[in-house]
Please model this.
Amino acid sequence: MIRREISLLAILIALTACTTNPYTGERQVSKAAKGAAIGTVAGAAGGAAIGALAGRKAAQGALIGAGVGALSGAAVGAYMDVQEKKLRDQLAGTGVSVTRSGDNLILNMPGNVTFGTDQSAIQSSFYPVLNSVALVLKEYPKTIVEVLGHTDSTGSDTTNETLSQDRAASVASYLGSQGIDQRRLLSQGFGEQSPIAPNSTSEGRQANRRVELRLVPITA
Model:
């Protein structure tokens, strides 16, 4: 949905700024219009990332103000190291993977074990897994928990975006019900925008249907 809106906006800018070449008689887009279109696309594409960053910063500020505290220097890496090990131990054999990206931890929850087909209600069989995650999150409160929903490319942009948002919200809501501070929880749906495998195969589509938990340390 977002990509379609960006493309349409760029096209409209180009069409409204066309000129006629006096030598060939052909319609062409001016350099200024091209620059405006490129700038519009770049700005719109970065808007979601900027919005997510702003939400993260606001959450960090609220938590620091509430006395949760912040990490700095070598303490950041050490804090996430211990948390990573505990999560790997808790989630071994559950189908949920734990990966490290810098000082962030990413928990990948496959859609086929978390939700029914085209459903956003969490399957009851997955509650124990989320309970295990919640135990670790409560032990290590100095992280923001970004709950990110993703789908494959099957279906319309609108349907995929809505489903991914609803699934992310369901996971965030459940974690909140298990005692995780709501101020730590940020949820967002990306629809089909961020595949991790080709959508041309059934295996790839299954991999793309997922909810990720991104644990971001609260830093000063």
